Amino acid sequence: MSQVIVIRHPKERKSKCSLASLHNHHLITFYNAHKDFRFDATGYILLTLNTSPLTSQDSGHSFIILDSTWRLIPHLEDCIEGEPIRRSLPKNIKTAYPRTSKIFEDPAGGLASIEALYLAMKIVGEDNPSLLNEYYWKEQFLSGLRQTKKVD
Fold first, then answer.
1. 29 in a domain, yes or no?
2. Is the residue at 152 inside a domain?
3. What would the pLDDT profile of 2-55 be if each residue is shown by its tens digit?
4. 3-state secondary structure string, the chain?
5. What are the beta bridge partners of residue 8?
6. How many domains in the chain?
7. What percent of the chain has pLDDT over 90?
8. Is residue 44, in this structure, part of any structural domain at all?
9. CB of 103 within 8 A of CB of 44?
10. pTM of the full structure
11. CA 41 from centroid of its chain's CA atoms
12. Could you tell me if residue 131 is inside a domain?
């Protein structure tokens, strides 16, 4: 499995974090962003929206996941330095995570962090359903994936 860097916004509630079960995974490193935090993302794939789609040709790169509510993502992007490879996930994939914000609208193609990680790994040829083992909405998410067109 590729190396994965997770950068979490300080206001992100760990109790709501879809990646919580992966804190001890040997290939995933978690960082808590703070005011002076910076990460050189040169050569890493940064999953984001509205960029070139991730494909199997992107295999071999490490990933960065920005873990936050959608409205706080710009603050995390400010921590990124260097030249990351910006890639997006297919827009036709729907999240199974129940969205509850009554103030901000989440982007249509937005996924829960664990869903984005799993899907990215699948696209680059590292399909690992065990990443979703502790994800409460695992079955709904995988069912939705099976109902969509080919991923990649």
1. yes
2. no
3. 789 989 877 766 656 667 677 778 788 999 898 899 999 999 999 988 899 999
4. CCCEEEEECCCCCHHHCCCHHHCCCCCEEEEECCCCCCEECCCCEEECCCCCECCHHHCCCCEEEEECCHHHHHHHHCCEECCCEEEECCCCCCCCCCCCCCCCCCCCCCCCHHHHHHHHHHHCCCCCHHHHCCCCCHHHHHHHHHHCCCCC
5. 32, 67
6. 1
7. 35
8. yes
9. no
10. 0.82
11. 15
12. yes
- The torsion region of residue 94 among left (phi > 0), alpha (psi -120 to 50) and beta comes to beta
pLDDT at position 54 is 96
Provide the b/e sequence for 62-85 (b: ≥16 CB within 10 Å): ebbbbbbeeebbeebeebbeeebb
pLDDT at 16: 60
d(CA 55, CA 89): 9
Q: Which domain holds residue 82?
A: 4-147
Q: Stretch 83-106: mean pLDDT, rounded?
A: 74
Cα angle vertex 148, ends 147, 151, to 5°? 130
